Amino acid sequence: MYQTPEIIQLLLEHTMERVDNLGATLLHWAAVRNSSEVVEYLATRFPDMLEARTRDHDRYTPLLGACLNDGPLENIRVLIRHNRRTLMMADGDGRPPLEAAIHTNASSSIVELLTEETNRGI
What we know:
- The chain is mainly α.
- The protein has seven helices and no strands.
- It is globular and about 40 Å long.
- The model has no long low-confidence stretch (mean pLDDT 88).
């Protein structure tokens, strides 16, 4: 179920927990499962979350997580717009988002977007 930025803001006001037991932030989860409006809100309010990595072997950033879990394309665009450096941040196996997406057979639209954005440079 999608949440609105207002609901997310209310939740943030009443909790200090912004990271789960694997190191995934609210932005990791929103990038895969929420609206671009919420991703935009979190990326703007908490820009440090854009480069946060999970603590497991995968070492995913929110961008990697969204790409490898077929997150909404608009969410991926928002993440890239807020921090293009994450296009070069590798996962736990040393693969940046484009290479990881190809390796895991991500959707063709995600691979195409990552190819375009990577070719544009940082």
